[in-house]
Amino acid sequence: MPxxxxxxxxxxxxxxxxxxxxxxxxxxxxxxxxxVSNRWHHTRSHKPQNLKCPLCQQVFTxxxxxxxxxxxxxxxxxx
Length: 79
What we know:
With 79 residues, this protein is an alpha+beta fold. It has helices at residues 3-11, 39-46, 63-73, and strands spanning 17-20, 23-29, 35-36, 51-52, 59-60. It has two domains: 1-47, no CATH class; 48-79, Double Stranded RNA Binding Domain (2-Layer Sandwich), CATH 3.30.160. Strands 1-2-3 form a three-stranded antiparallel beta sheet, with no helix packed on it. Strands 4-5 form a two-stranded antiparallel sheet. The longest helix has 11 residues, at 63-73. The protein is elongated and about 45 Å long. Pfam families: zf-C2H2. This is Sex determination protein fruitless.
């Protein structure tokens, strides 16, 4: 990852994005070019947390994705 993009991430997710001109609720990520509506969640994909499912050891980059996995794959268990 280029150093200037790491610096943007360190300053906050607001500097990593620019608004999509045709839709004020969407943002374009300067790091990967992906168009997203939730900047906070997308920023976490660039700074993965590497959370493991306690039951099957599948790895997730965000806690909310792991919770959804637990709900659907392991019968609603929670962490």
